[in-house]
Specification:
The chain has 1111 residues and is mostly beta strands. Among the domains are: 123 residues, Ribonuclease Inhibitor (Leucine-rich repeat, LRR (right-handed beta-alpha superhelix)), CATH 3.80.10; 157 residues, Leucine-rich repeat, LRR (right-handed beta-alpha superhelix) (Alpha-Beta Horseshoe), CATH 3.80.10.10. Helix 7 crosses helix 8. The relative contact order is 0.02.
Length: 1111
């Protein structure tokens, strides 16, 4: 027997030494005494039985051991406790651990590099009572053999992110289990209903997994349960009403699932509940007051981010133990119940993001324990009740952002000595920031006033807020200079005041703010240079002073600030050159914005040193010379904007190394090389602007390889040859502009694949052939603008356009022919601009055109349309409403990065108005035009024409209209240009004609006396109507009632009308008599210089006569 015991002892000693041999690092020397100089029972962490023969406990927790767990651990047959937690053990758990039949405690938690799975042999540890393994990298599933360990009382397998699979159903065999914690793993599948058999279970935590399905009602059988946590899973369905039977439950946490329905009323039976957390589900309905009356021990109620509605129950005010009440992001309405003021133990209150109305109850003054009050994004209104809030002695945080609070900030606050954080932005507060604010808030650390209507200066007394860390007062009307005293707030870290009317210089005293990390004063009126003292801001990572009047040079020291990541000095008055010192190898700058200044000279070659740069924006300056090849060293660059400078020469091939580029804009310069071949390497490009240069050659076929492009602008160059069909392979394209080049050949059919386009501009080239793009597949949710004017396109109007959601269509100045297709029922309602000028279209205008209710600019002039104008033209609803708005709300190509719309997108279309040709880059609501001139329309002008009250430009000239001009024309009171010339209209000119600025009724058959208001126009406006009389023509009493122009200047029918335009109202022109008027008029006509002075502009074909008194 003695010999057998000696052999067993030798086995234990050998097993321990074998374990030691697997340990590679022992920084604390925990195993230093594990050697033959002493008995193993005296070794560190080892405990033996009473006879000192066998190891019963091995506790090596938190010894920072690094190494493998030896398989010899399974030879310690008498072991009851094994604690290897919180070390750096790696590798797999040895399967021999299952031989430890006497093991009761096994702790392996906190070995983050432990891998493999929990061995199935664990089921051999039949005496195991406490098994804990967490914060490891073990994987696989929880072994079902754990069901054999029926002595288990605590099973914690938690925070092992690679552990997945279902929860074994045979865990229900562990009838002694009190704690089951399987949280923070990646477990999947449904909750086993059999877990309801664990009658001794007190804690069930399955949170933060990927469990799905409904909560099994069988969990209500866990009569001993104190804590049920199923949070952060994917559970669905309602909350089982049977959970109300868990009478001992203290914590119910169902946060962030997809539960629906209402809160079961049976939960009012949970009279011992302390924490009820139902945050982030899809629960809804009203909360009844009855449910809450019995929950007298409730300390935390979290109902955030659900769909609860109705009023907040007044009965919540009876929960005297409540410490945290969070009802954020629901649909609660009505007023805040005053009963909440009775919650004397409440520390945290969050009622944000509801539709609450009214004010904050005065009873809140009784919330003596309150530390944080969050009421953001509601409809509360009226003044902020500072008097009520001042009576809450321990209040630390006031969060009232995004309400409708109004009124002024009081000149003197009560004492808020405990308040450290106050956010009252996004309200309607007025007045100024009180001078004594720091006296009332002596411990304030963070304060936000942004998006209000505050005005006046920042008070110099702000220096008394000695603990101030963050101050935000953006988007107000705060004016005056920045107080230099703010430089005394030594703890200041964040300073943000963009969008105000601050003036004066940047105080050099701010350079002493050693903790400052961010400055943002964009969109103010600050002036002067950037102070040299700012070189001391060594913690600064964000400096933004865009859109001010900052002057002087760009300081070189900005490149040496060790933490500066973001620099935006765009849209200022900076001058001089860029200092090479702005770029150095130690810089961590990610973004530099120097756009829209007056910087000049060459871009320094040292720019290549700033290898961390991701965005570089130098556009809208006066840089010259070439792009330095060292730009190619900025291999992290994603955005490069050099637009609108005077850069020239060839675009360097080194830019082809910038493979991370997503945005490249070098338009509006003087580059002269052919289409850059290096662009082929930049496959991540999403936007490419090469427009307004002098690039030559053709567009390469490989451009189709740039499959991520969404914006491509090549307009206003000298590109020639055909459009490559491969462009159609870039199916992500949203904007495509190749206008104003020398491109030839047809438009490729492959453009039918560009279904995401919202702008297609191929205008002003020499493209030919028929338009065969199939627009039927284009995205109907995106309104597209198509510009194909000034080409040589032929063929009929493409029928597939009926399936496109058009907004602008310009086919002007081509050779299209045939009639517009009759498309019954087609009315692409987004269409606002429809231009077909100078083609060869024939036939009548089909019905669908007159049903385009948003159409406001129509130019069908210089075609061969015929027939009568129909009565249904009064369906042009946009033209029936007068708008004086000049807001370019329909311009989706808004200015970006300092570009106007034309520069940025090459979005433009031409309009031939009476007396001028206009190029427009947007559609303002007030700009309306109908031009049907130079066609073959006949018959009377329909009375429905005079219902289009929103018209400002109307041209029906050079047709064959007959009948009279209806007195209803007086309804067109917004009209500015009117041209009915060269028709066959008869009868008198009606009285009450709108006071247009340009009028041409010449060469009709009008007769009778002129209405008095016509006297302000030149006679040319009425030439060719021999039966008219009265000013400005000959008096009706004359024996020969002919037009002064036609009788005095025969043969000038066309040239006279085409040379005279509208005259400003300030021109004084005295007519003494008919003969005197004719003499002066002939003098104007025969003297080009005098005619220019009178009319203020050169002659333009098809222009109207000058007006003596235009609007």
């Amino acid at each position: 027997m003695l010999q057998e015991q000696a052999s067993d002892s030798l086995n234990d000693s050998s097993a321990l030494l074998d374990f030691k041999s697997g340990i590679l690092e022992d920084p604390l020397g925990a195993l230093q005494n594990w050697n033959d100089t002493s008995t193993f029972c005296s070794w560190s962490g080892v405990q033996c039985d009473g006879l000192q023969q066998h190891v019963v406990s091995l506790n090596l927790s938190s010894f920072e051991l690094k190494g493998l767990i030896s398989e010899s651990i399974g030879s310690l047959y008498s072991l009851t406790t094994l604690d290897l937690s919180h070390n750096s053990l790696f590798g797999a758990i040895p399967s021999t651990i299952g031989t430890l039949k006497n093991l009761t405690i096994l702790y392996l938690t906190g070995n983050i590099e432990l891998t493999g799975s929990i061995p199935d042999s664990i089921g051999g540890c039949t005496q195991l009572k406490d098994f804990q393994i967490g914060l490891t990298n073990i994987s696989g599933a929880i072994p079902s053999t754990l069901g054999n360990c029926q002595q288990l009382e605590t099973l914690r397998v938690f925070s092992n992110v690679a552990l997945d699979g279902p929860i074994p159903s045979n865990l229900s065999l562990l009838q002694s289990l009190k704690v089951l914690d399987l949280s923070n793993n990646t477990l999947t599948g449904a909750l086993p209903a059999d877990l309801g058999r664990l009658q001794q279970l007190q804690v069930l935590d399955l949170g933060n997994n990927q469990l799905s399905g409904e909560i099994p009602s069988q969990l209500s059988q866990l009569s001993s349960l104190l804590d049920l946590s199923l949070d952060f899973n994917q559970l669905t369905g309602p909350i089982p009403e049977q959970l109300g039977l868990l009478s001992n439950l203290r914590v119910l946490n169902l946060t962030q699932n997809s539960l629906n329905g209402s809160i079961p009323e049976q939960l009012q039976l949970l009279t011992n509940i302390r924490v009820l957390n139902l945050t982030k589900n899809s629960l809804g309905g009203n909360l009844s007051s009855e449910m809450w009356r019995n929950l007298v021990h409730l300390e935390e109620l979290h109902l955030d981010s659900n769909n609860f509605q109705g009023q907040i129950p007044t009965a919540l005010g009876d929960l005297g133990s409540l410490k945290k009440l969070k009802l954020r992001q629901n649909a609660f309405s009505g007023e805040i119940p005053p009963s909440l003021g009775a919650l004397g133990n409440l520390t945290d209150l969050d009622l944000s993001t509801n539709t609450l109305t009214g004010t904050i109850p005065t009873t809140f003054a009784n919330l003596s324990a309150l530390r944080m009050i969050y009421i953001r994004d509601t409809q509360l209104s009226g003044p902020i009740p500072w008097g009520t809030l001042s009576q809450i002695p321990h209040l630390e945080e006031i969060m009232f952002t995004g309400n409708q609070f109004n009124g002024t900030l009081p000149l003197t606050f009560a004492n808020f000595s405990a308040v450290q954080k106050m956010e009252i932005g996004f309200n309607q507060l007025t007045g100024s920031i009180p001078d004594g604010i720091c006296d009332s808030f002596p411990n304030i650390r963070e304060v936000s006033f942004q998006y209000n209507h505050l005005m006046g200066p920042i008070p110099p007394s702000i220096k008394n807020c000695t603990k101030l860390e963050d101050i935000v007062f953006s988007h107000n009307n705060i004016s005056g200079p920045l107080p230099s005293t703010l430089g005394e707030c030594a703890s200041l870290q964040w300073l943000e005041g963009w969008g105000n009317v601050l003036t004066g210089p940047l105080p050099p005293e701010y350079g002493s703010l050693k903790n400052l990390t961010a400055i943002n004063f964009d969109n103010n009126k600050l002036s002067g240079p950037i102070p040299q003292e700012f070189e001391n801001l060594l913690q600064l990572f964000h400096l933004s002073l865009a859109t001010n009047n900052i002057s002087g040079p760009v300081p070189a020291f900005l490149g040496s600030l060790p933490r500066l990541l973001f620099l935006n000095l765009g849209t200022n008055s900076l001058t001089g050159t860029i200092p090479p010192g702005l770029f150095n190898s130690s810089s961590v700058l990610l973004q530099i914005h120097l756009d829209s200044n007056r910087l000049e000279g060459e871009i320094p070659e040292q720019i290549g040193r700033a290898g961390s740069l991701q965005q570089l924006k130098f556009h809208n300056n006066r840089f010259n010379g070439s792009i330095p090849s060292t730009l190619g060293d900025l291999t992290n660059l994603t955005t490069l904007f050099l637009r609108k400078n005077s850069l020239s020469g060839a675009i360097p091939e080194s830019l082809g190394l910038l493979v991370k580029l997503t945005g490249l804009d070098i338009g509006d310069n003087h580059f002269t090389n052919e289409f850059p071949s290096f662009l082929r390497n930049l496959t991540n490009l999403q936007s490419l602007w090469l427009s307004n240069n002098s690039l030559t050659g053709g567009i390469p076929e490989w451009i189709g390889e740039l499959g991520n492009l969404e914006y491509l602008s090549l307009g206003d160059n000298n590109l020639e040859g055909p459009i490559p069909a491969q462009l159609g392979d870039i199916t992500n394209l949203t904007y495509l502009s190749i206008n104003n080049n020398k491109l030839t050949g047809p438009i490729p059919d492959s453009f039918s694949q560009l279904t995401e386009l919202v702008l297609l501009n191929l205008a002003a080239n020499s493209l030919s052939g028929e338009l065969t793009i199939d627009f039927s597949g284009y995205n109907p949710s995106k309104n597209i603008s198509v510009f194909l004017s000034d080409n040589n396109l032929t063929g009929p109007f493409p029928k597939s356009l009926q399936n496109a959601s058009l907004e602008i269509l310009d086919l002007s100045n081509n050779h299209f022919q045939g009639s517009l297709p009759d498309l019954p029922g087609w009315a692409p309602t987004p269409l606002k601009v429809f231009l077909l000028r100078s083609n060869s279209f024939t036939g009548e205008i089909p019905s669908w055109v007159w049903h385009l209710e948003y159409l406001q600019l129509i130019d069908f002039s210089a075609n061969d349309f015929e027939g009568r104008l129909p009565a249904e033209m009064n369906n042009l609803k946009k033209l029936k409403v007068v708008s004086n708005s000049v807001e370019e709300s329909d311009n989706r190509f808004e200015p970006t990065e300092g570009f106007d719309a034309r520069q940025f997108t090459h979005y433009e279309y031409g309009l031939h108005l009476k007396g001028s040709f206009q190029v427009r880059t947007s559609v303002s609501a007030s700009f309306t035009s109908l031009d049907l001139s130079q066609n073959a329309f006949a018959g009377d002008i329909p009375p429905q024409m005079y219902e289009l009250r929103g018209l400002r430009y109307l041209n029906l000239s050079r047709n064959a209209f007959t009948g009279d001009i209806s007195p209803a024309i007086a309804n067109l009171d917004a009209l500015e240009h009117l041209d009915f010339s060269h028709n066959r209209l008869a009868g008198p000119i009606p009285a009450g004609l709108p006071s247009v600025g340009v009028l041409d009724l010449s060469y009709n058959n009008l007769s009778g006396a002129m209405p008095g208001e016509m006297s302000r126009f030149f006679p040319a406006s009425f030439a060719g109507n021999p039966e008219l009389c009265g000013l400005p023509l000959a008096a009706c009493s004359d024996s020969v009632p002919t037009s002064p122009v036609s009788s005095a200047l025969p043969g000038l029918e066309s040239s006279l009308a085409d040379d005279l335009l509208s005259l400003d109202a300030g021109m004084a022109f005295v007519v003494g008599s008919a003969i005197g008027f004719i003499g002066v008029f002939v003098l104007i006509v025969t003297s080009p210089r005098l005619r220019f002075l009178v009319c203020f502009r050169p002659s333009i074909p098809d222009s109207s006569a000058c007006s003596l008194d235009p609007k």
